[in-house]
Amino acid sequence: MTLHRAESTDRDGYVPSARRLERERFKRARTRRATAVAAISTLVTAAVLYVVVVNSPGWQRTRETFFDPAFAAKAFPDVMRGLWLNLRLLVVCGASVLVLGMLLAVARTLRGPAFFPLRALATAYTDFFRGLPLIINLLIVVFGVPALRLTGVTTEPVILGGVALTLTYSAYVAEVFRAGIESVHPSQRAAARSLGLSHRKTLRYVVLPQAVRRVVPPLLNDLVSLQKDTGLVSIAGAVDAVYAAQIIASRDFNYTPYIVAGLVFVALTIPMTRFTDWVTARMDRQRAQGGTV
Amino acid sequence: MTTSDADPVLRLQSVRKTYGKGGGTVVLRDVDLDVAPHTVTALIGASGSGKSTLLRCVNLLEEIDDGAILLDGVDITDPRTDPDQVRRRIGVVFQAYNLFPHMSVLDNVTLAPRRVHGVGRAEAEGRARELLERLGLGKKADEYPDRLSGGQQQRAAIVRALAVRPRLLLLDEITAALDPELVGEVLSVVRDLKDEGMTMVLATHEMGFAREVADQVCFLDAGVVLERGTPAEVFGAPQQERTQQFLSRIVEAGRL
What we know:
Chain A is an all-alpha fold. Chain A has helices spanning 18-54, 59-66, 69-109, 116-131, 134-147, 157-183, 186-194, 199-229, 241-252, 256-289.
């Protein structure tokens, strides 16, 4: 609430009326009441959850196999070493996804009969890879490509896993970019064309700069999603954070390393999510400040 | 092609334009129009009479169904002409300004000179600043469009259209989205352009202004040029009943 404080007098000598003072007292009381209710209900919920979990018949066993501090300490260094792989994968895949996604989106906006095959191919690509479950895509690429025994083609699971991730995510990102391109009002295109700009120059100088700005929040969202999905390359046998945890877990029959790996991923995505929120809020503010388009 | 001052800059010959399948709605029917160099043509008529469509056809944003549009004697509606080449010689100012919100005013103005006409940055910016200065926007060159008032935005849009030294300027109800107080500043710019000899075609609801500034007034009704002549003829002694009706309603509304 950004009301003037009731006691402050404005420059023009305005003195708040009794009605305003009474209303502001009521609003303050209402806010205090709401805060108290929220605090009490949070405490009650937490207490109920705690009692239910701790009193469950298998709690003792669960605590030993999932939440053992000794195993957590033992697994942590290995998991962090594995995480370095996830991070490198994220950077490389993220960059190639953005480039490929943009190319696909632009290919779908091309007009003219000569571009029909390109347009059709881009559409088929996005339809196919958006529908294909990522895990199946990974299995096919990671185990299928080496089975072909092509000379000069890598069998390295990390690289193949990265390729599979890029294939799926570029299809998602292409759709995000396309939505952005279509959200630019046709009058912008008309203005650019009436200045004599060609289709290509209109796209480059007028449409894409506005489109990209608008889709930054959903793009960051996809990047957060990609960040955790890099953990799936573990199925190919690449020693990332998840596989590092799995090695320890299967050796000692203790699942604590999985919890460690999970928490590490969460810790990694939280800053990214907050950053996304911040960017979104900033853009909303800018839009609220003005701008007819 | 040599052009003398006697040849019209723009000539429309029996232009027909329809929308929808099988010509469902006829928007322009058999429209003929000549625009002589250094003259102002005002298109008047009710909303939906075809004024804006006519301007969009001239700028090739719409394709006509029949007839021809000639710019300096060359048929620009021939499918073999390159629309980008034609548009380079025609400036357009839109009702909703259509400035590019992600660029400063200066970048809006220099985009076409630099990217279409290949003018160097320094030269393009020099000329842009000079034009902005002349239209009273010298201090706004580095601002973004959303920091400008409606009148300033529309004047910036006019500068953008002028920056490529067009042969012909099309103005599509450029004051319709403005507060009454801001209309004057935009109209005075148009008046100055006329004095400098710019050839213009404008669609407008500002009858007083059309009467003052136009050399030729065309009254469009349901896609047909019902009446045309000097402002004195069309406003002073309209021949057609529809024109008389239209003008008397305008007078009632206090717009003339």
